[in-house]
Amino acid sequence: MADYMEFGQELVLWGSAKAIRLWNEWRLASVNGKPSGEDLLFAMEKVLIQLRIDMGQKKGLKEGDILRMFINDIDAALERRKTRKMINDSNGR
Fold first, then answer.
1. Cα(26)–Cα(63) distance, integer angstroms
2. Comparing 44 with 88, which gets the higher pLDDT?
3. pLDDT of residue 69
4. Concatenated DSSP letters for 38-66?
5. Which of 8, 23, 54, 85 is the most interior residue, by most CB within 10 Å?
6. What values do phi and psi take at 81, rounded to 5?
7. CB proximity list for 63: less than 8 A, separation 6 or greater
8. Which residues 6+ apart lie within 8 Å of 70 measured at CB?
């Protein structure tokens, strides 16, 4: 928990506005809602990609690329997300 708090404090000083907003979205989703573990992982990946962009690594990574380094079946999770998005889009959400 101390590392979590320290990271948040450092982010306030060094993170871009977008990185801070993404971190806050992830943090609030993890305590307020009932998101799936997959949703939380993808939200954290967005934070990591934004931090890389902030450090000058602007090109090349898309959703799933960082998670693929650690999760063997990430392609199945990406397919589930794609299917859910199509269903939500067709329902007007």
1. 15
2. 44
3. 95
4. HHHHHHHHHHHHHHHHHTT--SS--TTTT
5. 23
6. -65, -40
7. 42, 45, 46, 78, 81
8. none
